[in-house]
């Protein structure tokens, strides 16, 4: 039950941050995908099942506020969440450098999956914005690493 | 539960989630453009959150402008006064023109109908997956909005149309830069007819179905709505032709730069009545 509440709060927090970024500048939304960051972080904390469920929830929220194919982002984020949780259980991704690379790769996987399905299966366009769009994995890595490091410090202090 | 299933529980959950979403994607085929009940429900639940965040930012911006950054307020005030004066002059001229065409009683009714024919709304969010597809505005069914109402920006240029999902206080606007958008337009000078479809990638549009043999269109020519699609009223400015190219196909490849400016898209007007009903 606690995991469900945490998951719900996570989706809500991601949605609030996404809306806040939109108020600041639309360009921020092109390069920062807060939902992907949330899914990867949840997968790191709760494992592959939690990551997959969180991916589905975040993806369906994205699709509800998009005129694209409903379910497309859901599938991409579900796969990303599951793989992020699975790989983080098999490999030690906690060192700062590895964490940065890992989150960046997961962000790139999410973006790549979405682009592949959108263009190959559904012939949908995506907002290149002069290539700025492709910087998403980098910003995902920066933001995700920062937030996860902060979470670990707070958790260590709480437990200590 | 069999041991095998227990060991593979996580993989089964993952496969189950993927299957559910593939079913959701497949179910859209009979629905077409119409969103599913689940999509509408999520929109209904989360759109008030967007509205609240927009309201918070708006309030913070007001505090900053009204109490801290007063210089900007004074400059804006002067600009608004100038615009108001200009609009008042135009209003007077148009009213005089109308008086010559209609008797006073009819004119009063026409002006009242004109005032009710559009609704101003704030843009509270853009499309979560592709910023060129749609925006969310802070007016909905409670304000009389319905699907296929035309939406224009502050300068009267076409922005798009209202589409589902629409909640009580929020609505989705499909932008004309969406690759699924289609607007019937013609060139202002030669009335060459075509269909304007969004690019979906870079904020520009394509003017489709203009024959390759057509020599009337030139770069820089303005396009306006024709009204033939029965959705967008005729005469609304849409954009200008950026480039014209010819390849081996039957039609020209014409790129159009719409007047829609994302950086200035904070307020829009929804045309709630057809102009034929007003005039």
Task: Give a quick precis of the structure.
Chain A has 160 residues and is mostly helical. In chain A, 80% of the residues lie in helices and 0% in strands.
Name the features:
heterodimer; A: 160 residues; mainly alpha; B: 279 residues; alpha+beta; 6-stranded antiparallel beta barrel; 6-stranded antiparallel β-barrel; 6 helices; 12 strands; 25% strand; globular
Describe the protein in words.
- The complex is a heterodimer of chains A (160) and B (279).
- Chain A is mostly helical and 160 residues long.
- Chain A is built from seven helices and no strands.
- In chain A, helix 3 (34-46) packs antiparallel against helix 4 and helix 3 runs parallel beside helix 5 (72-90).
- The longest helix of chain A is centred in the last third of the chain and has 26 residues, at 96-121.
- The two termini of chain A are 26 Å apart.
- Chain B has helices spanning 3-7, 9-31, 37-68, 70-101, 104-116, 275-278; strands at residues 118-126, 134-137, 150-152, 158-166, 171-175, 182-187, 193-198, 205-208, 222-225, 237-245, 253-258, 267-271.
- In chain B, the strands form two sheets. In chain B, strands 1-2-5-4-3-12 form a six-stranded antiparallel beta barrel. A six-stranded antiparallel β-barrel of chain B has the order 6-7-8-11-10-9.
- With 279 residues, chain B is of the alpha+beta class.
- The interface between A and B is large, with 47 and 49 residues.
